[in-house]
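Obj.: predict assembly geometry.
Materials: sequence records (below).
Method: joint structure prediction, all chains together.
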Amino acid sequence: MADTRLPDLAGIEAAAREIAPHMAPTPLIRSEILSRVFKAEVWLKNETVTSIASFKLRAALASLIRARERDGIASAVTSSTGNHGQGVAYAGRLLGIPADIFLPADANPVKAAMIEAFGGRLHKIGEDLDVAKDAAKAHAAASGGFFVDDGDDPDLMEGAGTCGLEIARALDGIDAVYVPLGGSNFVSGLGIAVKGIQPDARIIAVQAKGSPAMVESFHAKRPVERPCDTIADGLMTRIPPGLAFRCMIEMVDDAMLVSDEALLAGMHALMESAHVLVEPAGAAALAGAWERRDEIAGKRVVLVLSGANTTTDLIRRALATPPLFALADATA
Amino acid sequence: MSGQAGDPTLAGAEAALATIEAHVPETPLIRSEALSRAFDADIWLKLDCATATASFKLRGALCDLLRAEARGGTSGLGGGVVASSSGNHGQGVAYGARLLGRSADIFLPEGTNALKQGMIRAYGGRVHVVGADIDYAREAAIRYAEDNGLYFVNDGISLDIMEGAATMAAEIARRLDGIDYLIIPVGGGNLTAGCAAVIAEAQPGCKTIGVQPEGAPVIVRSFLEGRPLEVPGESFADGLVSRVTVPFAFEVFCRHVADGWLCGEGPIKAAVHSLAECAHLLAEPSGAAGLAAAWERRALLKGKRVVLPITGGNSSMDQFREALATPPLFTLAEAVD
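Observations (raw structure tokens):
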């Protein structure tokens, strides 16, 4: 069982060493077009090009490697809207550990299919993520499996934080990092890493208007529950998880909401101007930065592209939505 | 023009890696679960669509420019740099020239993808649209360089460009053993020739296959017939269209490439669609040609370890829409069933 210690920079550095045999650092690329459009230096941290097309593998690997070393686990259990479930399934297979993954009944079909393809045993139950989580916990308790708790596990957070470590080690003088916000595991871990190396860097978390629980909780300084209704399943949380929320309060400088329309417009802009496919959650950082572009002018910012597990239908919808800005305008 | 002496070697590609790696970090090499299931094989994707210029071309351009700069004197960069390109090589050269504080004049054939023209300008390149195809544009570029005392980046003749491009194979070989097939889209043949030479040394059991569209087949057909042909081309995969062979690249290609495959326009579009749906990637049509040809010959690839370089992501949105409107080679559901 994972302890309730607080994650820290040393732990993230250790996690980086632990996961290194299993995954390479991801690209951090200066975007020419986005830099012109924002009149700033805009870098993209591309987490879409991992084996599971999202950053979640980092967290899952760190958690399972450490649990196995600590307790010699026989199986892993978790609940997820998809990317975390893929991460646990894939990490489990890499490490030779069976994985049971619980999803809400209406989960993204692409993600569900991939979890099974990665060797995870799929269980579809409940109307949202939190109901699925209760079922997963019950199953773990009943079967003696290791419950991988997305949001309450310092190992997961330190694994996710390896992304921030790569960013801060590769690029000096960062003014701000914009990060998509789901359960806050990612923003918290990333925040600890970035601020641990560059204390003046600001961390801005971006969530969907249709799933505002973490952002409202952040501003209220206490957990607030909200229902979820957004196309961005990577940004969904109804109930703020304990540990991740505590870290978020400390590590994140600001949190904001963007509309589904802005996410689609951001997807379109990233495809056209940065030549990268992202899922709606993966466009959150750009959508948030776009709203704050007056603040960003003249600065050095990093936008984290968290993943690309999306359907062709959503890609078509994004292409049918006017982009946040047009490539033609930037290259005239 | 830069030197040519013998074929690229593994040592040469490793040296080129040392030259460029500060500017061109290693690109991801990932096993695709969905494609592996669809093919019933071990399918790996080398994601050169994820570089700073969204194609592999930066490797060769930077290797050539950095080495020319280091050589200095009459072989140095003179007043500036010139290149001819269907778009991606031009971006690489413009990017590299700007890095070294030089001007870049890029010659593109008429009808070049507008997105690629825009990107070249964004990197500070001056765009000259001239000539009915890439080889006419190349002639114009060479004349311009000679007339103005500028350095022509000679894609297909320069060993430095070929070894630079072959750093892709060096990276692959460092990460993955026992490769059976390396299946690469072919424009002028520089990348495929260089990678074939290097992988033949690193993993002698690996067969390198060059792929071109049926509508732009000059390199593959020349290879299969054993002599340089002239065949005008046209294709949705705009990065793969040329009319003639280029001497050095063609010689190296013939020495080391195991086979040449052609694929249709429909499968190229379908491959772009499958890469988006099943591998979560935005590939330009040229970058998807390898997958298209491989799918047609999947019986041959069953149970094998195959590396498919995704050579670029500079797709226009119209191209991408057209690809998504084409039924994919296989859906994700079919792949993971």
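Conclusions so far: Chain A has 15 helices and ten strands.
To do: check interface contacts against the pulldown list.
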